[in-house]
Amino acid sequence: MKTRILAAALALAASTAFAAGPDDHTHDDTHSVGQPGTAAEVDRDIEIDMVETADGMGFEPSELTVEEGETIRFAVTNRGDLDHEIVLGTEEGNLAHMEEMAQMGQMDHRDPDALRLAPGEAGELIWTFSNAGTFQFACLIPGHMEAGMQGPITVN
Description:
By secondary structure, the protein is α/β, with parallel strands linked by helices.
């Protein structure tokens, strides 16, 4: 089953990768989720693993709860065999961005609300959650969100 899911994800990614050349991609919009934080502002660290399982793909933990105004350092490790990313946003915004990625081919995210990692790679993302609500973290690489790489962020 894992092989079938990985093969489908690779086929989907390959089909869109050649539709257009690599594209540096940045967001100019304001973030209802919050804004980039700095290391000096970090209130706590949350470790997140990007994983591939027999049932699909995902993040561990699969859901997050933070406090409004809290600055989080996400220590993210890709434990899978494929490239993965984590993008913070609203569900609607992430879905729209995912569709844009599928049409444009490969994108090199250079956004403070996103982190792309190769297999075995680790990185960090520092974010201040300035608004209460329910938001989302997701992998927007074509096929990955559909395979389960998404989860809610509850900001109390």
